[in-house]
From TrEMBL:
The chain crosses the membrane at residues 12-33, 53-73, 80-98, 110-131, 138-157, 169-189, 201-220, 232-248, 268-293, 299-317, 329-349, 361-380, 466-484. It is found in: Cell membrane. It is a multi-pass membrane protein. Residues 15-489 form the Major facilitator superfamily (MFS) profile domain. GO terms for molecular function: transmembrane transporter activity. InterPro entries: EmrB-like (IPR004638), MFS (IPR011701), MFS_dom (IPR020846), MFS_trans_sf (IPR036259). It comes from Priestia aryabhattai. Keywords: Cell membrane, Membrane, Transmembrane, Transmembrane helix, Transport. This is EmrB/QacA subfamily drug resistance transporter. Pfam families: MFS_1 (PF07690).
Length: 507
């Protein structure tokens, strides 16, 4: 990354602290809005499908911007990139808080997302280049604290704010913090770097935008519109074709926008695969728990958020500890232990009942988060450790991009399983009820009550089936984690030789 950072005798803790705060509020803001969507629908008079664009649009901009961060990190300084990102994020937050109509709010979210997309890869890359290999685990543990804790407390904080204030307060709360970080970074960030003369390939940018954007939009729309919708499978096909063309072009370029040759490093390839599977499984609790708790059980958004808070706090406490354990024992021991705990707790979640106690739900969710805290950062860090330093920007950009895509795929898969299995169970339960004694003599009120009971029971069973799929995903990740080895950086001589060969091929 920046030569000034690499040449420092000790890590630039001031720079890292500023980047951590910026990344924290950008991630927090992303999850704050989810609980507020019903209030925004009512206040701005928009439909469910319309208001979802506040989340979908944010995700799409992230998916489009993140692949370009490898180029941006190599081309520009940490100071320049962070100031640009925070300016965009702060401007978008101020505009969102003052939005009189939905179109202005959506524009504000897109501006926010364009800044937020830069922050996480930038922070991860600074951490990788600032710490020696034997201390990276502890450093990435702090990164994990931000990545996990911020989105985890978002629903609880949002639920409390929505109960006491209007939805605009979500943005008013973040605005002064963002402004302080922006002003502070202007005066405190001092890093400089030699100008790197690399240019962004326009065709690669277009193909990347269509490829990742198409896949993200298609999969994120599947749960709502159904897999038989032209809008769903059409955008997925277009996205897949564009992505294939994008990857093919990267192999032909002298200086690729996103370097796919990093997958030739086995530990990076393995860690990326495990991370994608884990991300898909992680969405089961993030998506299915609120549906079960709020829709089936009728628990308020605030108490729904509070249910997840102990797990979030435990993950926050565990992240730095896990980082130190990674430095001492490596990724495999942590990943196997964590995934075993995750698999067992997810299995118990696949056996929910209409009357499962609140205490049981908190306990299972907290234990599941404890297991997950041992997995994500160690697995990701172990893979990045095998990459030569010059490939760090590409590794961080690739990991963040794959997490976006796998998250969308996981959401679509689990929502589809839940919806289809709920419909199947509803038919089966209705047939059983109709064949029961006295069904024909049931009163209208009794029939309505029975229909509602069947609907709730069918939904619980559908949620259980989706959790069962998540168990399979976690077991797959557990098996893959058995093949992990402690990674060491590849030789720079090998990279130089490969680059020379690529330049010859490009000619």
């Amino acid at each position: 990354m920046s030569q000034s950072i690499n040449q420092m005798e000790k890590p630039p803790y001031g720079i890292i602290a500023i980047l951590l705060i910026g990344a924290f509020i950008s991630l927090l803001n992303e999850t704050l809005l989810n609980v507020a969507l019903p209030s925004i629908m009512k206040d701005l008079d928009v439909t469910t499908s319309t208001v979802q664009w506040l989340s979908t649009g944010y995700m799409l901009v992230n998916g489009i911007m993140i692949p370009t961060t490898a180029f941006l990190i190599q081309r520009y300084s940490v100071r320049g990139l962070f100031l640009t990102a925070m300016t965009l994020f702060t401007a978008g937050t101020i505009l969102a808080g003052a939005s009189p109509v939905f179109s202005v709010l959506l524009t504000a979210r897109i501006i926010q997302a364009s800044g937020a997309a830069i922050m996480m890869p930038l922070l991860m890359n600074v951490l990788l280049t600032s710490f020696p290999l034997e201390k990276r685990g502890a450093a990435m543990g702090i990164f994990g604290l931000v990545m996990i804790f911020a989105p985890a407390i978002g629903p609880t904080l949002s639920g409390w704010l929505i109960e006491h204030y209007e939805w605009r307060m979500l943005f008013h709360l973040v605005t002064p913090i963002a402004a302080i970080v922006l002003i502070g970074s202007f005066f405190l960030l001092k890093d400089k770097k030699e100008k790197v003369e690399i240019n962004l390939d326009f065709l690669s940018l277009v193909l990347s935008t269509i490829g990742f954007g198409g896949l993200l939009y298609g999969f994120s729309s599947a749960g709502d519109k159904g897999w038989d919708s032209v809008e769903v499978y059409g955008t997925i096909i277009v996205g897949a074709v564009a992505l294939i063309l994008f990857i093919t072009r990267q192999f032909k370029l002298k200086t690729p926008m996103l370097e796919f040759r990093i997958f030739k490093y086995p530990m990076f390839a393995l860690s990326s695969t495990i991370s994608m599977v884990i991300t898909m499984a992680l969405f089961s609790a993030m998506l299915l728990m609120p549906i079960y708790v709020q829709t089936v059980r009728g628990i308020s958004p605030l108490h729904s958020g509070l249910l997840m808070l102990p797990g979030a706090l435990l993950m926050g406490v565990m992240s730095p500890i896990t980082g130190k354990l990674f430095d001492k024992f490596g990724a495999r021991a942590l990943a196997v232990t964590g995934l075993t705990i995750t698999a067992v707790t997810t299995y118990f979640f696949s056996n929910l009942e209409l009357d499962t106690t609140y205490t049981t739900l908190i306990t299972l969710y907290t234990l599941r988060m404890f297991g997950m805290s041992m997995v994500m950062m160690p697995v990701m860090t172990n893979g990045l450790n095998q990459l030569p330093q010059r490939f760090n920007p590409h590794g961080t950009a690739m990991n963040n991009t794959l997490q976006q895509v796998s998250g969308a795929i996981g959401s679509a898969l689990l929502v589809t399983v839940m919806s289809n299995r709920t419909a199947t169970h509803a038919k089966e339960l209705a047939q059983d009820a109709m064949s029961g004694a006295g069904a024909a003599n049931a009163t209208a009120a009794g029939a309505a009550q029975m229909k509602e009971q069947i609907g709730m029971q069918a939904m619980v069973q559908g949620i259980n089936d989706a959790f069962a799929v998540s168990v399979v995903l976690v077991v797959v990740a557990l098996i893959l984690s058995l093949f992990m080895k402690r990674a060491t950086p590849a030789s720079e001589d090998e990279v130089i030789k490969e680059k020379a060969g690529r330049e010859q091929f490009a000619k």
